[in-house]
Amino acid sequence: MLTLIKDTLTSQVVTLWRVFSHLWVKADTVEYPDEMPYMFPRWRGRIILSRDPDGEERCVACNLCAVACPVDCIALQKTEDEEGRWYPEFFRINFSRCIMCGFCEEACPTNAIQLTPDFEMAEYERQDMVWEKEDLLIDGTGKYHDYNFYRVAGKKIGGKDKGEARNEAVPVNVRSLLP
Amino acid sequence: MAKIVIDGVEYEVNPDNNLLQECLSQGLDLPYFCWHPSMGSVGACRQCAVTQYRDEDDKEGMLVMACMTPATDGAIISLEDKQAKSFRSDVIESLMISHPHDCPVCEEGGECHLQDMTQMSGHNYRRYDKKKRTHRNQYLGPFINHEMNRCITCYRCVRYYDDYAGGTDLSAQASHHHVYFGRHEEGVLESEFSGNLVEVCPTGVFTDKAFSGQYSRKWDLQTAPSVCVGCSVGCNTAPGERYGTLRRIVNRYNSEVNGYFLCDRGRFGFDYVNSRKRLLEPVKRVDNTGELLADDEIKAVIKEFSREGTIGIGSPRASNESNFALKTMVGDENFFAGYSDSEHESMAAILTLASDKTFHSPSVREIEEADAVLILGEDVTNVAPRIALALRQSVRNKAMDLASESRIPQWQDAAVRELAQHERSPLSILSPAVSRLDDIAADRVIESLPALVAMGHQIANKISGSAPAATSAEHDAAAEKIAAQLKGAKRPLIVAGSSNGSDLVKAAANIARALHEDGEKAAIDLCLLVPEVNSIGMGLMAAEENSLGVALDKLSSSAAKRVIVLENDLYRRASKSQVDSALDKAEKVLVLDQVTTTTTAKADVVLPVTAFSEHEATYINYEGRAQLSFQVHQCQKMAQPAWRWISDAAHIDDVIERCCSEAPGFAKLRDVLPGGNPFIAGMKVPRQSHRYSGRTAMIANVNVHEPKQMEDKESIMSFSMEGISAQKDPSIMASPWAPKWTSNQSISKFQDEVNGELKQGHVGSLLFEKTDSGAYFDVPAATVQPSGKQLHLALSYQIFGSDELSARAEPIRERMTDAYVGICPEDAERRGLAQGDVATITPTGAPVVVCIRTGVKPGTALLYCGDANISPAEFTGFLEIEKSAARATSRGIANLIVSDFQEEEI
Question: Which residues of B touch A94 (CB under 8 A)?
Fold first, then answer.
């Protein structure tokens, strides 16, 4: 009985001490919005579409982000230019459904879709939370600076012929009899 | 039955098959590439290695290729053995050495056999750091994309294209790791079955070009079991829809009908569904312009047309339900057939023969079993293409017999072909010109149509003396030979059709009846082809005396005041003057159709009708097989199934039920409806895959508040991802998918055994009761000979163009030719005509392109009407051709692919 009373008192005193001791500790919160908090680069906030180091759209409209999305809030349509490069005809994210899980970024084979530290996404109108490609596409490479999918992929596109991708031999001459 | 042990478990297997096939039949996962269920084994890819043990004491075992090893009784094998597993993973690692880093930009991704097999074998990282070999691609026409970098040299494409489908312009070139699969030079792939390369290729070397332009992943396509409406074979298809438009068609397995393959008309001819030229709103004509109809106005129109004095013209391209609804609305005696009068005559003969015990109408699978074939005057490749592919397999039965004699298993594809060389079961073609099946024909006789009819009767007479003898005696030796071949066969098959009049049908029937009388054979296979998807269904509905000509006369003579035309362009069925006078005389014309035609332009009221993918419907194929086609997607606008416009029925099942009980001959139609209790735990079958994406974003640009998922009150399918998927034993399956098997190869998971019936599938229901036993047809009286400049007329058809709807699809249009007359060089010279000239044909004076072919019977002109609005009904047996000053249009006949044997002497 005595131990119980002793333990209870100690516990409460210790708790109170800890609470009051925080009066002299520097605040973890900041005076948002007057002061912006530091967001880590890999924070999962607003989603963007990035460009490759050559300044072209990175997204190849492979649909993997859309299928990975647990709330099905990504919809897009593939199209291609005259020289065979795939890109999305439209790319839509319904941010009012997005749960910022980052699965789309994990699924993306071209590093096109990325989550950014920007969390200021509130809108008065829910309709305004539907973002199209024009809203999503940024001018830079985002978090991943060097990767260029089409430089690695075997598909021929404008400015990159067969055999010019990384680790590719020149195209076979089928008529040749040489070994 | 044999017993084998696989990884310690005993299985009962068929010893005639190989181990790979039996492993798949048992539902085991064993990777493979070069083997294909309908093409047998060649052992090229070394991917299906398993360990086989001598006996129970053998702990080492040895590696064998499952596809090359028979499933002998007592065999002990292991799929899971370490050495077999590591061998398979090493093989795929070397296959993947040069595979490009392409999957995100490859149309095959997500339904790729190579992706599946790579994952199954456990290879995931490219250790080889040297360069990848690359290849240049070829232009292969409007249907197929070529991306040779992705090739793993399994040789399936050439084995399918050359060996199975009889193509000549795709080959394996170069050697070692330079091996290249393509044409000798860029150009359109000639085979009518090239589209199957998309499904045969285990990776993305050959992909669907038409689909690529509006690409969606397999998991994003809303799919339902459907039936192709391109011809009378009724192949089973799986159309896919995304964002409101129809995107592609792939094969849907049906063991009795199409098996694993479709023709290119069926695969690429659906684009008209998305066309802006579709009819999508109810319109009435006011001074040559259209005006939208309000709901109450439509009701008034239907009421007006329900009155006395209305006749209805049915349609061979409309469903049974729509034809039946029209028949009920106007009354039996006022319902008229919607095909030309000459076709009506042929159909009457075909429908009589259908209930005759002497004959059996073979399914496509049964056609493949024939060991002697006679094709009488029908261009099978262009009328019912899938049957031409089956006929190609039938001539291999000789090879199979030879193989059995030498005790070579039938699945040993290379060995069987090597053994047989050019030995084929006899296939004889009697036709007015060369055809695309000539390369497999043992005998060809090229004659004018009346002579072919005479020859048919002559063959019948030679088989059985009781058959009436023909008057002429040309080609006596050939007739004798063909008669002997048919008599000697175990399962002879006669193929004819309605495309060139009823005389050929009757001659074919006489041959089959003679065969029946001669031998102790049960019913004789008699395959009578009809041109359109529901020719048989509509033929059964219309009374025999109610032909189109009678209907048009009734209108012209004002015996009938109003006419309802159901999904039909009458100008394709009867002569222009006849239709014009009928429609001008009619007080009111109501046309229900999917597309605008010359007939809709003449209508007072036009009601829009849904296309094949937008409604549930039943169709009856050439053999009398009724099949159910489900709705794939909702029509975006106001089109409705025709039966919904013109009847009060609320539910399609009610229409089918009424049709069963009221229309004679349709009693078994209800069998096609999913039987028993189709709903498991009250749940429907989803049209969308379990990974269907974008549900909350697809139409968020219009309104972020998602509407309720569309409900389907009609069928057992739902417009959502929810319900019992195909893996959980529903009564239907749209597109095959199984864990680890994303491509169409997963079909083996749904068959009761490889090449067997689907576990959940319905092969359709045969409507015809065999009750009568008829008598021989009489030989037709000697025909009038052509006079002066006249030529015998033989109607010609094209796989790309002859079908009214698919001819409106963009990829098909790229392969179409203009209307042409085919004549032999002598006839051309006499008229001063050169190849590609434009000529006018009498009596219509329509311009056609001249196509000079050595393989046409002198004195005969082939007329292909194309989409040029020349009605074949304008001509009666003869044709005159006159040179014209007009210039050929841009299309000309450049796309015409004629027989490879064209230049041979007749």
Answer: 696-697, 700, 704
Angle at B481 between CA B479 and CA B482, to 5 degrees: 65
Does B324 fall in a domain?
Answer: yes
B554 and B639 in a single domain? The answer is yes
Domain that holds residue B513: 354-531
B694 touches chain A (CB under 8 A): yes
CA–CA distances in Å: residue B360 to residues B378, B494, B513, B537, B793: 19, 10, 11, 18, 31
Chain B stretch 135-164, residues whose beta carbon is closer than 8 A to a beta carbon of chain A: 135-137, 147, 149-150
Domain end position, chosen among B531, B556, B588: B531
Structure tokens at B636: 């975006």
Which residue from A110, A153, A174 is facing B100, i.e. has the nearest CB? A153
Residue type, B591: V
B382 vs B388: CA distance, rounded Å:
9
* Dihedral sign from CA coordinates of B323, B324, B325, B330: positive
Contact B569, B246 (CB under 8 A): no
**Min distance B726 CA to chain A CA atoms (Å):** 20
pTM: 0.93
Q: Would residue B276 count as lying in a domain?
A: no
Residue B672 covered by a domain: no
Q: What's the pLDDT at B904?
A: 46
Considering the domain architecture, whether residues B42 and B26 belong to the same structural domain is answered as yes
**Tens-place pLDDT, residues B800-845:** 988 989 999 999 999 998 888 889 888 888 888 888 888 888 777 7
Mutate to test the interface with A, among B101, B107, B127, B274 (most CBs of A within 10 A): B101
Band the pLDDT of A164: cuts 50, 70, 90.
very high
CB atoms within 10 A of CB B22: 27
pLDDT of residue B290: 76
**Nearest alpha-carbon partner for A88 in A55, A63, A54, A115:** A63
User: For A86, which residue in chain B has the nearest alpha carbon?
Assistant: B105
| Contact yes or no for B135 and A169 at CB 8 A | no
Give CA–CA dist B334/B313, Å, rounded.
8
B102 closest CB neighbour out of A66, A75, A153: A153
Query: Which CATH number belongs to the domain containing residue B288 in this structure?
Result: 3.40.50.740
CATH number at residue B70: 3.10.20.740
Among B134, B215, B697, the residue with its CB nearest the CB of A171 is B134
pLDDT tens digits, one per residue of A106-117: 999 999 999 999
Same structural domain, B500 and B548: no
Handedness of CA B690, B693, B699, B700 (dihedral sign): positive
For the packed helices B397-405 and B413-420, what is the interaxial angle rounded to 10 degrees?
A: 100
Least confident window among B546-550, B749-753, B894-898: B894-898
Q: Hey, is the C-beta of B103 within 8 angstroms of any chain A C-beta?
A: yes
Please report the sign of the dihedral spanned by the C-alpha atoms of residue B15, residue B17, residue B18, residue B21: negative
Which residues contact residue A147 at a Cβ distance below 8 angstroms, ignoring those fewer than 6 apart?
A: A52, A110, A111, A141
Q: Are both B445 and B551 inside the same structural domain?
A: no
Quick one: which of B214, B218, B137, B206 has its CA closest to B167?
A: B206
Architecture of the A47-152 domain:
2-Layer Sandwich (3.30)
Task: Tell me what pLDDT residue B140 has.
Answer: 94
* Residue B839 belongs to domain with CATH number: 2.40.40.20
Number of domains in chain B: 4
pLDDT interval class at B605 (50, 70, 90):
very high
Contacts of A135 in chain B (CB under 8 A): none
Chain A residues near residue B694 by CB distance under 8 angstroms: 66, 69, 72-76
What's the pLDDT tens digit per position in B587-600?
999 999 999 999 99
B461 and B604 part of one domain: no
